Amino acid sequence: MVAPQPSRTRAPRGQRRRLGSLGDERSPVGRRRVTLADVAQAAGVSSPTASLVLSGRGDELRISQAVQERVRSTASDLAYRPNIVSVGLRKGKTRTLGLVSDTVATSQLAGDMIKGAIGAAREHGFMLFIGETEGDLQIEGALLEAMHDRQVDGIILTSMFTQTRPVPALLDRVPTVLLNALAAGPTNAPAVVPDEIEAGRSAARLLLAAGHREIHLIGAGPEPTDMPPGTVAGVERLAGIREELRAAGLRPASGRRLDSWLPPDGWRATRELLAAHPHPHAIICFNDRLAFGAYQALHEAGLTIPVDVSVVSFDNYALAEWLRPGLSSFAIPHEQLGRRAVELLIQTVRDGVATAPGQVHRYPLPLYSRGSVAPSRA
User: Fold this and answer.
1) What's residue 188's pLDDT?
2) 155, 187 contact by CB (below 8 A)
3) What is the distance between the alpha carbons of residues 70 and 44, in angstroms, rounded to a whole number?
4) What is the pTM for the complete model shown?
5) Do residues 219 and 162 share a domain?
6) Cβ–Cβ contacts within 10 Å for residue 195, how many?
7) How many other CB atoms are there within 10 angstroms of residue 107's CB atom?
8) Are 36 and 146 members of one domain?
9) What is d(CA 181, CA 165) in angstroms, rounded to the nearest whole number?
10) Is 92 left (phi over 0), alpha (psi -120 to 50) or beta?
11) Same domain, 202 and 327
12) How many domains does the chain have?
């Protein structure tokens, strides 16, 4: 007797079970990657035909709608995903970017640069690889080589604090953008940095608009050279302050250069300032940590902010809004800087050349006004 044959009734398309080399679709765990050849075989077409359909060129090459629908449906049923790396290498692009930083990724203050960079990369369909060097040049070189070996389309070289630094020769071979850093020598890499010069102008302008004519500095001396070496932000902030005061026919009433910008340094410098100028009226601190120390010293001297002394600062550190009164501070736009660096890099990757080689893109520091500045009583 001949055994009865199983029914040949065709199951609905969405419920079909494809067997053979692809395994049981009900349990995708452990299955090998579905290839374009698998889709072509299951759909009953050639691999070139499947490729043309899935790349959106079916109509262009007059492949019938029935065949196109069958290929797309089969690809969906098999959960086919194209091999992005292979596609990218054929086209000369991998849609990946590298970001190498010193301590940005682990910094609470500047971590938003990473957030902005990741967001912009995702929006443009790129993946961002991130490496951190802790300031070790050997690790930096190894990371750059590793990213270059993996054929990233471009690299962002990032610093926690704005600094002038050499650009490694390797980066001449790949599109590059400097983020929060300036090149120490000639380079085609554009740079994205905060506009510290304009922030200095704005800080002085804020106090001048409040009627203050006697403005003291904590963190830098009154002269252009009274600044710790290598402090790009400090040098540029001081330049902006001096420029705005000079336009008003003034110069800093006093200044105290500090090699460290921490709260104890701000406290000691403010005590020295009060010893020489018991009623200083207005103070510009070169970062918020110095301002925290200045607040303490002014309070100990029995002076009230802003009634007796107006204070303005930079960085918009998280604790600035918790002081009483809240500290008016110019914020570094970390997230916007990260986004802009990625956008510039992607533009360079797509165009094949930097649109403005070596150009420095400066972004304004917004003011968070919290009540530490009041009209002068003088």
Assistant:
1) 87
2) no
3) 9
4) 0.75
5) no
6) 20
7) 17
8) no
9) 7
10) left
11) yes
12) 3
SS3 state of residue 257: strand
The pLDDT of residue 255: 94
The amino acid that residue 200 corresponds to is G
Q: Is the pLDDT of residue 86 over 60?
A: no
Using one digit for the tens of pLDDT, what is the confidence trace for 319-367?
A: 899 999 999 999 999 999 999 999 999 998 887 766 667 899 999 999 9
* 376 lies in some domain: no
pLDDT tens track for 9-38: 343 443 333 333 343 433 344 456 788 888
* Pairing between β-strand 191-194 and β-strand 360-363 as defined by DSSP bridges: parallel
Q: Which residues constitute the domain of residue 64?
A: 13-82
Backbone φ, ψ for residue 128 (5° rounding): -110, 120
Q: Are residues 187 and 265 in the same domain?
A: no
70: tokens are 């069958």
Residue 201 reports pLDDT greater than 80: yes
With beta carbons less than 8 A apart as the criterion, state whether 122 and 98 touch. Answer: no
* 98 and 172 co-located in one domain: yes
Look up tokens 């938003």; give the residue: 112
Amino acid identity of residue 192, one-letter, is V
**Are residue 169 and residue 69 in the same domain, yes or no?**
no
Task: HSE, CB side, 13 Å, CA atoms: give it for residue 93.
Answer: 14
